[in-house]
Amino acid sequence: MVDWIISEGLTAYETALAFMEDRVAAIRSGDADECIWLIEHPPLYTAGTSAKREDLVDPDRFPVFEARRGGQYTYHGPGQRVAYVMLDVDKRGRDVRCFVRDLEAWVIASLAEFNITGEIRDGRVGVWVSRPDKPPLPDGSPREDKIAAIGIRLRKWVSFHGISINVEPDLSHFDGIVPCGITGHGVTSLVDLGLPVTMDDLDIALRRNFAKVFS
User: Fold this and answer.
1) For residue 47, which of 11, 75, 81, 79 has the smallest C-alpha distance?
2) 105 Cβ partners below 8 Å, 6+ apart?
3) pLDDT value at position 116?
4) Distance (Å, rounded) from C-alpha 158 to C-alpha 79?
5) Do β-strands 186-187 and 144-155 pair in parallel, antiparallel, or remain unpaired?
6) Contact 169, 77 (CB under 8 A)
7) CA nearest 174: which of 82, 42, 54, 56?
8) Would you state the pLDDT for residue 51?
């Protein structure tokens, strides 16, 4: 049994952290079901455990939070769907790499409903889309833009944090960081790709494809 919660408006990051801490503890003790929480945040940056200070290009632009999840710097803000994933990885096989691959597969399957081919790349966290409409990189390799970020943390084999998918955020807000420490490639969104997808549309796709990936 997985609870699905969708919060309207913008949820403060501190509120989200407190909720996840409490829910993870309750899941581990058997007092609560697993949970997927779909929210939006006000503009902010989060630093994962591998974040490099030099990748915070504009530290005064938005609040910066130490997330203690895996990964580096990322941006959250209006127009971006954040899916916090509180699942019992113990009963799902205790395989962290497999769990992350399932999260990636969930994102890719959801994007496919909008005819977007999401892909993963070795050495580059998240989900990427090819941009043949943009000039190639200086070395001649094709340009790719990131559309979704993934960063999780486990406590006693229960996951928290999760994924974020760009629906229609202000992409200029990513300029204050080096997203996930990756230079050269850019950031995109569903609307930036020319698709008039709403948050509700994405939520429906996420819920439908979750059941296909996570049994």
Assistant:
1) 75
2) 213
3) 96
4) 28
5) parallel
6) yes
7) 56
8) 83
Q: What is the CA radius of gyration of the chain?
A: 17
- Residue indicated by tokens 């390799």: 141
For each successive 10 residues of the chain (215 residues), what is the average pLDDT? 96 97 97 98 92 89 88 92 97 92 96 96 87 88 92 94 97 86 79 96 97 88
Residue 51, classed as helix, strand or coil, is coil
| SS3 call for 146 | strand
By residue count, the chain amounts to 215
- For the full predicted model, state whether its pTM sits above 0.90: yes
- CA–CA distance, 39 with 16 (Å, rounded to integer): 9
The CA-based angle 16-42-71, given to 5 degrees, is: 65
159 forms beta bridges with: 154
Structure tokens at 131: 């941009």
Active site residue ranges = 180
